[in-house]
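Journal club prep, shared notes

We agreed each person brings one worked example of a sequence with its structure written out as tokens. Mine is Large ribosomal subunit protein bL36. I'm keeping it raw so we can talk through how to read the token line rather than staring at a rendered picture. Sequence first:
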Amino acid sequence: MKVRASLKNLKNQPGSKVVRRRGHTYVINKKNPRFKARQG
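Then the structure, token by token:
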């Protein structure tokens, strides 16, 4: 699984969502699942 360092680059990808779960910020992408990230 590839993970980006920056969330800002990832949230501009088509199909990506920024989700907050349990105090962490995640970027998930259903169209292209390799774009995943976590912050916090």
